[in-house]
UniProtKB/TrEMBL annotation:
InterPro entries the UniProt entry points to: c-di-AMP_regulator, YbbR
Pfam families listed in its UniProt record: YbbR
Protein name: YbbR-like domain-containing protein
């Protein structure tokens, strides 16, 4: 070995080899540095990252955020970069906690990234429009759709609760027109009871997407019943009290009744005939009280209520003469002339009987004396006089009136 080292040629060769090796090492380091962009650091991009606003959603409404998505450029060493790219809890935050109603340009902040990477957001800020929220109390309306089973009808819906609070941006508070629940009763045979989501609508009937409703769901019950209608209840009065007594008053505790039955029957109802009361049985001065069942009739299936209380006051009668009551002719043919010849003045006096308080108010104009000439040929005819008198006023005794009419062909 010593001999080799003393040989100048060997030393030169060794020096050359060592120089080549040093050059190679330095060249490899330079090559590595130049491929990693500044000492092993590189960058990656993430597109379509959503902007996350941070604000008081109970008080404010975020009308506009532009842009809603941004591009992130992340710079760092390979290991840190991989860790940042694989993280799932990062976000781009738009902090609006110190802002009120208005229009602003607010910087964006990266959140959840490792400290050993650099994050650049493009664009770096967002334009926002913030509006305050307003509340409005609204009644709940129910839109009943569909047709129940044959012969049945949807009744008045019951809503719990029947009022809700609608929250919208203050600029849209006047646009809230209604809050509605939709219930389908198609072919239903019994009451429909559901929890239904509410929707707020504007004046044109379009849903208000920005509206928040509290509570958002209500309980709705739609009764399914036979068709029904509510009409006046008419008592059937038979006869009249015996001579010397009259009805002073008649009161019933209800004047209307709800009638259930086939729709074609209900369509023809103007009133419902209730139970009958025979006035001829009321033979003494007193107040009579009756609790009467209202009868079912003519395919009616149900009545509500099913009973009526009737109070009738009977008092001693008094009499009064109604003078100069004109005779009225009914049933006259268009092709003839008809006139009263007896009595000559065409008027009658009538003694009437009734309760003192009622009879005091009766006048001659309240009574009608009627002659029916239906189907009579030309000539003279003696006819009975029919009387139409106010309620609970009756004709006095021993008054059988007749009148003579003359019928002639019209010239």
């Amino acid at each position: 070995m010593d001999q080799w080292l003393r040989n100048t040629n060997v030393v030169k060769v060794l020096a050359l080899i060592i120089g080549i090796m040093l050059w190679a090492v330095v060249h490899m380091e330079d090559s590595t540095l130049s491929g990693t962009a500044s000492n092993g650091v590189r960058e990656e991009q993430i597109s379509n990252v959503s902007v996350t606003p941070k604000y008081d959603s109970g008080q404010f409404y975020l009308q506009t955020v532009e842009p809603a998505q941004v591009i992130l450029t992340i710079t760092g060493k390979d290991a840190a970069l991989k860790k940042a790219m694989n993280a799932s809890n990062y976000s781009v935050e738009l902090d609006l906690t110190k802002y009120g109603k208005g229009e602003y340009i607010v910087p964006l902040t990266p959140v959840g990234f490792p400290t050993n990477v650099t994050v650049k957001i493009s664009p770096s800020s967002a334009k926002v429009i913030i509006d305050e929220k307003s509340n409005k109390q609204m009644p709940v309306t129910v839109n009943v759709t569909g047709i129940p089973a044959v012969g049945l009808k949807a009744g008045q819906p019951i809503v719990k609760p029947n009022k809700v609070t609608v929250t919208v941006p203050s600029a849209n508070i006047d646009a809230v027109e209604s809050v509605r629940a939709d219930v389908n009763v198609e072919k239903a045979q019994s009451a429909i009871s559901n929890k239904v989501r509410l929707v707020a609508y504007d004046k044109s009937g379009k849903p208000l997407e920005m509206a928040t409703i509290n509570p958002a769901v209500v309980e709705v019950e739609v009764p399914i019943t036979s068709p029904f209608t509510t009409v006046p209840l008419q008592l059937k009065l038979v006869g009249e009290p015996p001579r010397g007594f009259s009805v002073a008053s008649l009161m019933q505790n209800l004047d209307k009744v709800t009638v259930f039955g086939p729709q074609d029957i209900l369509n023809r109802l103007e009133y419902y005939e209730g139970p009958s009361v025979n006035l001829a049985d009321l033979k003494e001065e007193k107040e009579y009280t009756f609790n009467l069942d209202i009868p079912l009739s003519n395919k009616v299936t149900q009545l509500d209520p099913g009973k009526v209380e009737v109070k009738i006051s009977i008092v001693p009668s008094v009499t009064k003469t109604l003078e100069q009551i004109p005779l009225s002719i009914v049933g006259q043919n268009d092709g003839v002339n008809t006139k009263v010849v007896l009595p000559e003045n065409g008027k009658l006096n009538l003694v009437v009987e009734g309760a003192p308080a009622l009879l005091e108010k009766v006048k001659a104009a309240d009574a009608q004396a009627i002659l029916d000439v239906s189907n009579l040929p030309p000539g003279r005819h003696e006819l009975p006089v029919n009387w139409n008198l106010p309620t609970f006023i009756k004709k006095g005794p021993q008054q059988d009136f007749k009148a003579t009419v003359e019928i002639s062909a019209r010239q």
